[in-house]
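Recall the central idea of this unit: under ordinary conditions, the amino acid sequence of a chain determines the structure it adopts. In this exercise we apply that idea directly, starting from the sequence alone.
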Amino acid sequence: MINYLIYNHISGKIDRLYVGAASSVATQLQSGEAFILNSGNVNDLTHYVSSKTITPKPANPITADKTTIIANDNDEITFSNIPNPTDVTITGPDNSIMTFTETDETLIFTTDLEGSYKFNFECFPKLDKVIEIVAS
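Accordingly, the structure predicted from this sequence is:
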C-alpha cells in the first residue's frame, strides 16, 4: 500500500488522501484532479501542491488589534492584513454562524451580545487562522 495525495491540478488544493496500490490510484481521480506520492506527514490543513511539489502553506497574516471588547455595540475590534478574498466564518456565543467573503484588507467587529466569538479566516493557499474574541 502506498500513500498518495489527490489534489486539484489547477489550484493545488489537496482534496483527499488515498492509500492503496499504485496501479489503482488513477481510478480514484475525478475531473480536474491529479495525484502525487505522499512521502511524509502531509495533510490538507498544512500543505498544498505547487508545480507538482508538496509545499507548506504560508502563514496567514491576519491580525486583531485586541481580543476583548465591551459588549456595547460601540467598542470595536479591527482585523487587519486580510488577503483578498478571504472566507470568514463567525460563530457566536449562541452558536449562530455567519459566513461571508471579505474583500477588504480590514474588518471591524462590534457586538452587544456578551460571550465568546470564534472567527475562522480561510484564504487558500495560506494557513487557516482562528481568532477568538470575548465580549463582556
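The mean pLDDT is 96.
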